[in-house]
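hey so i finally got around to running the thing on that chain from the lab meeting. sorry it took forever, my laptop kept dying and i had to restart like 3 times. anyway pasting the input first so we r on the same page abt which one it is
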Amino acid sequence: QVQLVESGGGFVQPGGSLRLSCAASGSIFSSYAMGWYRQTPGNQRELVARISVGGSRNYAVPVKGRFTISRDKAKNTVYLQMNSLKPEDTAVYYCNRDPPDSYWGQGTQVTVSS
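ok and heres what got predicted. didnt touch it at all, straight out
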């Protein structure tokens, strides 16, 4: 059974930082690339960061240079370090494999505002 539990979101001022965590079940974590997605009301989820099984990283243009994705294989956990946050980063953030499984966790809300 797939399990995805996101945490670490919150309220932060522009320019601030947050670190998101995602505890994933072993079956999905070890066999697939993992990604962080985000969604705002009325919009589709978008992939913002991806890390392959081998550790290669890719980022969407809006977050490149500010966000860093990593994974801890021993803990079956994926992280997203978010620096220099902007109001447009406000969204619910989810993790999932890439391409995504049909199951999604509850996500974690990130709000960037002054």
